[in-house]
Specification:
The protein is an alpha+beta fold and 585 residues long. It contains 25 helices and 15 strands. The protein is globular. The termini are far apart.
Length: 585
């Protein structure tokens, strides 16, 4: 059943698009609209637009758009009904209980329930006689019982059917277990436990749902860490371990660690703002996620070569997300967990408060191995410094650090800056070339998956889009337009479907906005429709323009009909000739 119109109207009234988006994006007014850096892709120039007039948003950079429900669906990774419930709770509304969720919503609900039961099972095993090996491991890592409870840690028994048998008794199917990735299908077709003989780390989303698991082997099994693959409720590139705790306890700063145990040890020591990626390198999506909850990130990776490479990759992503970045270098190659156990939490806090920012860290790395007492050493350091400083967009920042490097090496700041600016021009040139290549590749291989017929009927499709935008701005004109142009005369199937739905609602005297259409169109289709509205925003079309759009569509429709008739006539002639040939034979 669709949601009641009265409920959707109240939800729209209470969930202002600009207000909701502002809790995720730093928006600035631009005329009657608002703009900001897009939360769905990395960018330096704002291309994310919010249109208060029609309650929509659209990013001209990545093409994502829609209404407030679509925005929440995408940014919180929810399905339609989950996004509605999310907004309703925010607005203090109750979602009508007699609504039937679609199949995907039911599946997600079942997987979340299955994951919750799985986490309880692993914890109960850890606390039982069968979990002695897991308790011994956590004891060696000096975890307190309260910490184990807080994070819901557990243990997966060595058998291959313990969890599957338990979940079946709780009413879950083997297919659901496989979809949740807590089990896999054997050659015989039976579900088998995915995790076996490992200490378990539940991964919890920002709403408190268990969405996945990480498991660490206690022996020499490979891989050392095994993580849940992507499922209908989990995407490892979009989440961070322990952010559900850290988001409310960070004071504007997050500590980014490499592993689960580092995070857990830091939380136990009082640093409840620590988070970690989920078995993969940092992604731009995770960097943007952190920017929603903090202004500063301290990168606290291991001091070994792999950790330092990971830090070097993470820094530009975090900077692109608008975060102030600092890098914690722990002497002796220790990780945060080892350091706290050896020197205590107070020493770690002092080191944390005094750590340098990412520029100082990169310049220090450039200096390593360079003897500044020799000309060769100074030149090598200067070359490395130029590479670092050329990546800085802020002029003041470049000049400050250029001055420090110049002082260290005994050269003029202006000389160093001229080299930095030359390198920046080279980087910018390469960036433009790459952008041009990507645009050309997209243009050559571009396929409009939403309205594939548009390519064959560009003029008519453009008129259809303009007419849809006009109609949504001028609903009082729908009767005259509908009389001139019924939906069947639309040329492209997608635009025809949108037009039919709009005039259908207007006939019933119902409101028409993206929110009113959100239940019937997919997020990608709503993005497409939001793009149509965004491209026509500020266009002052009048009735005579609407008539021109109608005439273009009608003319194309007539041409197609005549073409089809000609094709039909040609087909009849061919059949007649073939008949004559057969008679002659």
């Amino acid at each position: 059943m669709p949601l009641p119109e009265s409920f959707l109207e109240e939800l729209k009234a209470r969930c202002d698009m600009a207000e909701v988006a502002s809790s995720y994006v730093n928006l600035k007014r631009s005329g009657k609209n608002l703009v900001g850096l897009c939360p769905f892709h990395s960018e330096k120039t704002p291309s994310f637009n919010v249109y208060p007039d029609n309650g929509s948003f659209y990013c001209f950079g990545c093409g994502v758009g829609g209404d407030v429900i679509t925005f929440i669906r995408r940014i919180e990774n929810l399905d339609y009904m989950e996004a509605v419930r999310f907004l309703a709770q925010r607005a203090g509304l109750t979602v009508p209980e007699n609504q039937v969720d679609d199949g995907m919503a039911k599946l997600r609900t079942r997987i979340l329930a299955l994951n919750r039961e799985t986490a309880r099972f692993y914890y109960s095993v850890l606390m039982s006689e069968a979990g002695a090996a897991g308790r011994e491991y956590f004891s060696k890592r000096q975890l307190q019982a309260s910490t184990i409870r807080h994070f819901g840690l557990g243990y997966s028994p060595p058998g291959r059917f313990a969890l599957v048998d338990h979940l079946e008794k709780k009413g879950f199917t083997q297919q659901e277990m496989i979809l949740a990735n807590v089990a896999f299908q054997s050659r015989s077709g039976r579900a088998v436990d995915r995790f076996s003989g490992r200490v378990m780390f539940p991964i919890i989303d920002l709403r408190g749902n268990v969405v996945a698991f990480g498991g660490r082997t206690l022996g020499d099994d490979k891989p050392k860490y095994l993580n849940t693959a992507d499922t209908p409720v989990f995407n490892k590139g979009d989440m961070l371990f322990a952010l559900n705790f850290a988001k409310n306890n960070n004071g504007g700063r997050l500590i980014l660690c490499e592993g689960y145990m580092d995070v857990i040890s830091l939380h136990q020591a009082g640093f409840t703002n620590a988070v970690a990626t989920l078995g993969t390198a940092l992604t731009p999506s995770q960097a943007r996620l952190m920017s929603r909850y903090a202004k500063e990130v301290v990168v606290s990776y291991d001091s070994d070569g792999a950790g330092q490479k990971a830090a070097a990759r993470a820094i530009p992503m975090l900077r692109s997300a608008g975060l102030l970045v600092k890098v914690l270098s722990i002497a002796g190659g220790k990780d945060p967990d080892e350091y706290i156990k050896t020197y205590g939490a107070l020493r770690f806090k002092q080191m944390l408060d005094n750590c340098g920012n990412d520029v100082e860290y990169q310049l220090q790395k450039a200096k390593e191995g360079c003897n500044l007492q020799t000309a060769e050493g100074r030149v090598a350091y200067l070359r490395g410094s130029v590479q670092v400083l050329a990546t800085l967009d802020n002029n003041v920042e470049r000049e400050v650090y250029a001055g420090k490097v110049a002082e260290e090496t005994g050269i003029e700041t202006a000389t160093l800056l001229s080299q930095v600016n030359a390198e920046r021009r080279k980087i910018e040139k390469n960036r433009r070339r790459q952008e041009f290549r990507e645009i050309r590749q997209k243009a050559v291989g571009y396929r409009d998956n939403i309205n594939p017929e548009k390519a064959q009927h560009l003029r008519a499709a453009a008129a259809e889009e303009a007419l849809i935008a006009y109609l949504m701005k001028n609903p009082g004109s729908f009767e005259r337009i509908y009389e001139l142009l019924p939906p069947e005369k639309f040329i492209t199937e997608f635009n025809r479907r949108v037009y039919a739905r709009i005039v259908g609602r207007m006939k019933e005297e119902k409101s028409v906005s993206l929110t009113d259409l959100a239940e019937e169109f997919s997020p990608d289709e709503l993005s497409y429709l939001a793009g149509i509205l965004a491209k026509h925003d500020g266009v002052s079309a009048e009735w005579k323009d609407a008539l021109e759009y109608v005439n273009v569509i009608r003319q194309e429709d007539e041409n197609l009909r005549l073409g089809n008739a000609a094709q039909a006539q040609l087909g009849e002639i061919e059949k007649y000739l073939e008949k004559l040939k057969q008679q002659k034979k």
